[in-house]
Specification:
Layout lengths: L4 H17 L4 E7 L8 E7 L7 E11 L1 H7 L16 E9 L11 E5 L8 E5 L3 E3 L6 H4 L3 H14 L7 E4 L5 H12 L3 E6 L2 H10 L3 E4 L5 H8 L5 E6 L6 H7 E9 L13 H6 L3 E4 L6 H21 L6 E6 L3 H9 L6 E5 L2
Parallel strand pairs: 8-9, 8-11, 9-10, 11-12, 12-13, 14-15
Antiparallel strand pairs: 1-2, 3-4, 3-6, 3-15, 4-5, 5-7
């Protein structure tokens, strides 16, 4: 049976009406009408979740926008099994209800949360192990820029690559949300940071955050930059979001026993004609990064951030970089801004 667009909209309206009639409380969400461009994002309604055992219900005040949201919108990054189909990997807001067995939080707590999905919504239910309490000095807007990018950077730098004080790292897309978080975390831990970015303005922002030097990849080959900055030795670790297009040059840029962490494939998925001899000669290690479907590792990362990094947020030693705040009704404009690579740091949706 073929259903017209008008008929489909009518069916969705009837489903939502059934939620009201069944006594379930509805909430506003941002949904994806169909895989495609930013115009496919629209306001909708869904039943408000109820917190299960170990979970709390958060009233969202601000939502972090991530490139994974754009990929999901295009149909290229589906949520893990059992996760919400609603986009969104992080929120900041207030705890309004606790499920059974919750012992770390109580209603009224100001928090940010790392999610597997469902963040583009007025309310989210999430296990307390994936939640960070916000210091009084951190606003909800800032809090919405912490969980995803700082967890990603922490996982890549310290858990996967084991970066130590005194080492040198290269961060591609240094002005991105993850990049600005990784610069701060690495510099805070006594690591020397090099970055690549697409303009001098972005490089200057990276230097302000603690990077030692930057390469405009539009004007200079980054392996040449790396060798000049390291006396020909190469860097100890590279955090890469580009993938195939940078793979060989990343290998050239790494020092002996260097580590490459790949967390994005913006420059392609397939590597051809790779000379593996250099990889073996240098004793290199290559890691792939994903937290969304790794519950135990997410729990570990959040616990370490809570114990080690959140005091630095309270003192102002670490700070999320907020590029632009959009009303959440303008999510399409936020996605357009991100996909144009115009941001330095995080793009935030303000709920209201």
């Amino acid at each position: 049976m073929i259903i017209s667009r008008r008929g489909l909209d009518g069916l969705l309206l009837m489903i939502r009406l059934c939620f009201f009639l069944s006594g379930k409380i509805a909430m506003q969400i941002i949904e994806v009408a169909a895989p495609g461009g930013p115009e496919q994002l629209r306001m909708g309604r869904a039943p408000r979740p109820a917190p299960g055992p170990g979970e709390v219900l958060i009233r969202s005040c601000a939502i972090g926008v991530n490139r994974a949201d754009c990929l999901q919108r295009r149909g290229l990054y589906p949520p893990p099994a059992g996760a919400s189909e609603i986009p969104g990997l992080e929120v900041a807001g207030e705890v309004v209800q606790c499920g059974s067995g919750v012992h770390k939080l109580q209603p009224g707590a100001r928090v940010c949360a790392l999610l597997s999905g469902g963040g583009y919504a007025e309310y989210v239910a999430v296990h307390e192990d994936y939640i960070l309490q916000l210091p009084a000095a951190v606003s909800f807007i800032e809090g919405a820029g912490i969980a995803e990018v700082f967890a990603t950077a922490w996982h890549a730098l310290f858990l996967l690559a084991g970066v130590q004080a005194g080492e040198t790292v290269l961060l591609h897309a240094g002005a991105s949300g993850v990049g600005t978080a990784a610069i701060q975390l690495a510099a805070w831990r006594g690591v020397r940071v090099l970055v690549t970015a697409g303009s001098q303005d972005k490089i200057d922002r990276c230097l302000e955050l603690g990077a030692a030097a930057g390469c405009n990849y539009r004007e200079q080959e980054f392996p040449e930059f790396v060798m000049a900055e390291t006396g020909g030795q190469g860097v100890d670790m590279i955090l890469d979001v580009v993938g195939a297009a940078y793979f060989s040059r990343n290998i050239d840029s790494l020092a002996m026993d260097g580590r490459l962490v790949v967390l994005g494939l913006q420059g392609g998925h397939t590597i051809e004609r790779v000379q593996m001899a250099k990889w073996l000669q240098k004793r290199l290690s290559i890691f792939s990064h994903t937290l969304r479907n790794h519950a135990a590792r997410k729990q570990q990362v959040i616990a370490e951030l809570a114990a080690q990094a959140m005091p630095a947020f309270a003192q102002g030693a670490l700070r999320p970089v907020i590029d632009r705040v959009f009303p959440w009704q303008e999510a399409a404009a936020a996605h357009t801004w991100m996909e144009a690579n115009r941001n330095v740091g995080k793009i935030i949706l303000e709920v209201g």
